[in-house]
Write a structure and sequence with these properties.
Elements (H helix, E strand, L loop, with lengths): L2 H24 L1 H16 L16
């Protein structure tokens, strides 16, 4: 990744953290639900596409 892209990713991460902290100020259960969803999403493995069926080569 390029440095600007890394900076954007870091900023987005900090912004997400700030949002969760702000949500926690008025609803701890809502912030906890956000955190659970975040952790679950981060633990998910990318789904692989099933291998496409290949037609036999015709001569």
């Amino acid at each position: 990744m390029s440095d600007p892209l890394m900076e954007i990713a870091e900023f987005a991460g900090k912004a997400s953290g700030t949002i969760v902290k702000d949500v926690a100020d008025f609803s701890k259960p809502l912030a906890d639900a956000f955190r659970r969803g975040w952790r679950e999403a981060m633990e998910e493995k990318p789904k692989t596409e099933p291998a496409a069926e290949q037609a036999p080569d015709s001569a």
